[in-house]
Write a structure and sequence with these properties.
Helix content is 70%, strand content 2%. It has 322 residues and is mostly helical. The protein has three domains: 67 residues, no CATH class; 89 residues, no CATH class; 159 residues. It is elongated.
Amino acid sequence: MELVKRYVSAVARYLPEADKAAISRELDADIQDKIEHQAQQQGRVLSTDEIAALLQQWGNPRHVAAQYAPAQPLVSSELMPLYWQVLKFVLAVLFVLQLLQSGMSMLQAEHFKLLQFLLQLSFGFFDEVATAFMVVTLVFYSAAFGNPLAGWLLQQNWQVKDLPAVERPWQQIRLMDIFTDLVSSGFLLLLLWHPLWMSADTLASLRLVFSADFKVFMPLLSLLLLCSLLFSLWCWYRPYWQQTTLLLNVLQNLLYVLAFSWIGFLPQLVLATNNPLPRLLELSDINRVLQHGALLLACYLFYEVLRDLYRIRQLRQIKTDE
């Protein structure tokens, strides 16, 4: 039975030290039973080649060890859906920050080079991704060892009665929509208040600044964006459209419609500094693009207002029918 000992020893190599002896004895007993059963069927002692064929069918020692002692995954299966949500959110935020940083760097350059911009964006983003992936994975991995966040991550105190009634497919808020709202609001906030996080040298090298007319409206717009961030976080926690959340979304979008419509009719949104603009870029063209973009965004948000009002009517009709 030399082959059996060699096979059991090979399996034990991949077993945890604490369970190695017990699992080895169990595996050896299982193999001996199988050999004895085949020997009884054939009415003779199995040859070395037959024992080798039986062990070959038993499987690769590494796979067999994994069946007896499955490895501890970095993230448990029950936390995996939330893990992917958090990871996607963090990566989306990092992409926006890198996009903003790369865009500001290009504005300081004398010539705009698309390839250079894409390379800077890609390498900078993937550099941040490695760190973010490690940190998020470690947080969720530690939940398996009594991490105080484990209870919150697993939401162990949930109640069936707290689950909302979902009558329409659109009542499930898509995760991508929440991410888009969060990233958009965060991007605009960072853009509006760039003097707070940019270095003095970077600020001095900027080629464009906000106009005085636009700066008057910045505090109100910032407050609206901050409220949007909080609303998006709430939607992430409870991703269902109900009458209350729809009404809040209607109010929020109406305010945005007014804000972007006002921005679209400003004489100028940005002004040129003493630093010359890159070639092929004119200040009037930049203002025109920003104004038209603001008006188009206002039109789209007004469509969302009408859509949400129709959805509220649908939910009220369901309650009436009940």
